[in-house]
Design a protein that fits this description.
Elements: H1 3-12, E1 24-28, E2 33-42, E3 63-67, E4 71-76, E5 80-85, E6 92-94, E7 104-105, E8 111-114, E9 122-127, E10 134-144, E11 147-152, E12 154-155, E13 158-161, E14 163-167, H2 173-183, H3 189-201, H4 205-218, H5 227-249, H6 253-270, H7 274-306, H8 311-318, H9 321-327, H10 337-342, H11 350-363, H12 372-390, H13 396-403, H14 410-419, E15 431-436, E16 446-459, E17 468-474, E18 485-491, H15 498-506, E19 509-510, E20 515-516, H16 519-522, E21 526-531, H17 544-560, E22 563-573, H18 575-586, E23 593-597, H19 604-607, E24 617-622, H20 626-639, E25 646-651, H21 663-670, E26 683-688, E27 695-696, E28 699-700, E29 725-732, E30 737-742, E31 748-752, E32 763-767, E33 770-774, H22 780-790, E34 799-803
Parallel strand pairs: 7-13, 18-21, 18-22, 22-23, 23-24, 24-25, 30-32
Antiparallel strand pairs: 1-2, 1-5, 2-3, 3-4, 4-25, 6-10, 8-9, 9-10, 10-11, 11-14, 12-13, 15-16, 16-17, 17-21, 19-20, 26-29, 27-28, 28-31, 29-30, 31-34, 32-33
């Protein structure tokens, strides 16, 4: 990849800088910082329309809201750790568009399309109506560090009172610069300096440099400001250092190296300080040193394994050396911690050293097995496990063969499963094709595939046998099947599709660079999008079939790709957000968090609210979204409880939209340690009103009692709260007890793991007050059965108890 392409990518993806407003920043207890902005407290996200009794007792203001001009962000007051006064470093430039004076209210319809802004900052926005679309003339009236203000102007159909806010990043940098330059006086250098300062305050240093160069050429008296160019070049270099560090953290070491090489070249050409040059050189040397360490480790392993005296064991170990060499990176090298530490031990025999060399790759970094026969058996066991998990039907003969091996015990099988590559292969035919048109139109187009993108069909079972669900996955650059990746599982809406969802998160694909440059790709996320709805389906129906169309691709993706089961985030736009909200609450044990964009709370969502305690949730909507008022009650309930990790963002003056500009902050929110799934909470309590909502963490049943269940198509808007069944359970590892307080099923299963109970002691099941004492019986068969079903290789269950006896 060329240095020019790297620089172009980076500057296109730079985030918004310091926010306008001078009040405060808010630090949340999870470490996230919001603001600066106007800070206040409210009772409601959306003020109820009904009149308030003036004599009623005042309610506590439990919701904190911060308005940064672009959007209002709502969080629970108790989740705010501190509010810190902030300097107002914002810049504001007024654009000379005349705002409508006698104005009509903005129509309720959604936006169909908007024309591009012209150089005067004007455009036409088309709103859906019962008759013909309504054309509303809009114009940019302010550009600040944090937002662009777009207001209604006089048009053919009248004047509309519409104060809409857009992020600076939602406008193309070239177009924004053209609008600002057009607005500036051609004879006042001060106007041009304002533009430069605006871009600097927004940390858009490339645009700032371009405008400053243009200003120096236009105004000879500014010749003495050339020194500022070097300062901007330094800022650019610092941003590139951050990008290289982000690439390294995402497992993209080669890309990080390319960024540093291009940065060093730019630093030298710009004549920046020796200190900055040395910083770049040091970072590059660290990468080179890592490569030397890798080569040294591979040489040690090859030498030690070659000295193993047990011929069959040596053959098994040597069969892995090529695989290790292919997939050994800074991340996977951690598996050899024990081997590096103990290799200098002169008391170890050659067979023990060879076993240690391979042990970490098979069993993980802390296994430290130095028994050659056990490690060789582990290599064979992994082969059998892969075969078992990749077959379409269960093969009990493989399980029997596996349990006869030294490494076929539950504890070692669990380690193998957790450290192996995904068992299900992805055929080359699943790669998504792309046609590349060369710059020279006389040259023929090239047929290729999108790197890391696959389209896969998943056969369905149960009531949908004979049908299939389809999904698209985009792997991050430099994907390594032996590294665990966080995942975004994103649901299309009525006006989007799988490709659109992938692009929203991962960015558009660059054939030249053979990668995507969006936020999810930069941060090393796998992005999966299922085709879950029927063609032209107008709304989500809350059915079990829709759940199957969504969850089957999730399980299949986890079998094929190295997804970290503790960091799978569910998301959706529009109708897809409605589906995501429902599925997140119906199956809270699956997700690390949920991101909902322009969705609506309906049916089961309103009754499953207690499950929100287990799922961090991030809402994005427009102030003028028709669902905002309808969602207000659910948001108020969530935001008034500190136990619920919830953040609501409303964009000022916006209708339903895709809100691409919110993505950097969403991914920042996703990155905090609090956004990790709790696979085994100490207790849980969940509501179920639907036949398919019958598994929660360690509880599962094939059939719930039917009396209190409601079919999705028969669900009434006035269904009373508390309707349905409650399923509650708790774990007490000290007493080795699992209790089930309420069980709305005749037959059911409880799945157990060492993270829940101690398998060295008797286990007590407390079912509706009755004690059932069980001897621990972890089984390799149960581990494989569970991994085959749930596809969670990180936290498999070891024991299954079917009740009643």
């Amino acid at each position: 990849m060329t240095a020019r392409l790297i620089l172009a990518f980076f500057f296109a993806s730079c985030g918004v800088g310091i926010v306008s407003g001078q009040q405060s920043t808010i630090k949340l207890e999870d470490g996230m910082v919001l603001g600066p902005g106007q800070n206040s407290s409210v009772q409601y996200v959306v003020q109820p329309q009904a009149s308030v009794n003036q004599h009623a007792e005042a309610k506590a203001l439990l919701i904190t809201v911060l308005d940064d001009g672009l959007r209002r962000t709502y969080v629970n007051f108790g989740r705010c750790e501190a509010a810190v006064p902030a300097k107002d470093n914002s810049i504001k430039i007024v654009i000379g568009n005349m705002v409508a004076k006698s104005a009509l209210a903005v129509p309720d319809g959604s936006i169909i399309d908007c024309s591009p802004f012209d150089v005067f900052g004007r455009r036409i926005c088309f709103i859906r109506s019962q008759d013909a679309p309504i054309a509303i003339v809009q114009g940019i009236t302010e550009v600040t560090t944090n937002y662009v203000r777009v207001e209604g102007l006089k048009g053919v159909k009248g004047e509309y009172d519409w104060d809409m806010r857009l992020s600076l990043n939602s406008l193309n940098g070239r177009d924004l610069r053209a609008i600002l330059v057009q607005n500036a006086s051609p004879t006042r250098s001060k106007d041009w300096f304002e533009i430069v300062n605006l871009f600097i305050s927004a940390e858009r240093f490339v645009e700032a440099r371009q405008v400053l160069v243009e200003a120096i050429l236009k105004f000879p008296e500014l010749e003495n400001t050339k020194s500022e160019l070097k300062s901007l070049d330094q800022n650019v270099a610092d941003q590139l250092f951050e990008a290289a560090e982000l690439a390294k953290d995402a497992g993209q070491n080669q890309f990080g190296k390319l960024i540093l090489e291009s940065t060093l070249d730019s630093i030298k050409r710009a004549g920046l300080s020796i200190e900055t040059q040395l910083k770049a050189v040091a970072k590059l040397e660290a990468i080179t040193s890592g490569q030397k360490d890798r080569d040294e480790l591979l040489a040690w392993m090859a030498d030690d394994v070659s000295k193993v005296s047990d011929g069959p064991a040596k053959t098994e170990m040597q069969s892995l050396l090529a695989e290790i060499a292919t997939n050994l990176t800074a991340d996977t090298a951690l598996r050899f911690t024990d081997y590096r530490r103990r290799r200098a031990d002169t008391t170890l025999k050659p067979d023990q050293l060879g076993a240690l060399a391979i042990s970490g790759w098979i069993f993980g970094p802390t296994a430290g097995k130095d028994n050659a026969s056990v490690v060789a058996a582990g290599v064979k066991a992994r082969r059998l496990i892969t075969e078992y998990l990749s077959k379409p039907l269960r093969d009990d003969q493989i399980v029997q063969e596996l349990t006869k091996l030294e490494s076929g015990t539950p504890d070692l099988v669990a380690k193998i499963v957790a450290n192996m590559a995904p068992p299900l292969p992805t055929p080359e035919s699943a790669a998504v094709p792309i046609t590349i048109n060369p710059p020279d139109s006389s040259q023929p187009s090239i047929e290729s595939t999108i790197s890391g993108r696959f389209a896969i069909e998943v056969p369905l079972g149960g009531d949908m046998i004979g049908k299939s669900s389809r999904y698209i996955v985009q792997l991050p650059p430099e994907y390594n099947p032996f590294r665990r990746y966080p995942c975004v599982f994103t649901l299309p809406g009525e006006s989007t599709n799988m490709e659109w969802q992938i692009a929203w998160w991962a960015g558009q694909y660059s054939p030249e660079a053979k990668r995507c440059f969006g936020e999810a790709s930069r941060r090393g996320y796998i992005v999966v999008s299922p085709d879950w709805a029927e063609p032209k389906q107008p709304s989500y129906n809350f059915t079990e079939n829709e759940h199957a169309m969504i969850l089957a691709p999730l399980r299949d993706a986890m079998r094929r790709f190295s997804i970290d089961s503790d960091r799978v985030f569910l998301s959706g736009h529009f109708m897809g957000a409605v589906a995501a909200w429902d599925i997140a609450l119906a199956h809270p044990d699956l997700w690390a968090g949920c991101i909902l964009i322009s969705g609506e709370a309906r049916k089961y969502v309103i009754h499953y609210g207690s499950s929100a305690e287990y799922i961090p949730t991030y809402f994005v909507a427009g102030e003028l979204d028709k669902f905002t008022e309808a969602n207000g009650k659910e948001w108020d309930k969530m935001l008034s409880r500190k136990q619920i990790d919830c953040l609501v963002t409303l964009y000022n003056g916006r209708k339903p939209d895709h809100f691409q500009e919110e993505l950097p902050r969403i991914m920042n929110w996703m990155s905090f340690p609090a956004r990790v799934r709790t696979p085994f909470p100490k207790d849980f309590s969940a509501t179920t009103l639907r036949a398919g909502d019958r598994f929660f963490w360690w509880f599962e049943t094939k059939e719930l009692f039917k009396e209190k269940l409601i079919h999705p198509l028969l669900f009434l808007a006035n269904t009373k709260p508390g309707t349905g069944y409650q399923i509650s359970s708790a774990i007490n590892k000290q007493t080795n007890t699992v209790s089930m307080e309420t069980v709305p099923a005749k037959n059911y299963s409880i799945w157990l793991s060492p993270e829940m109970v101690d398998f060295e002691k008797p286990i007590t099941l407390l079912i509706k007050g009755n004690r059932d004492r069980r001897d621990p019986k972890p089984e390799t068969r149960v581990i494989l059965e569970d991994v085959r079903g749930r596809a969670d290789r990180k936290h498999p269950f070891w024991m299954r108890v079917d009740l009643p006896k």
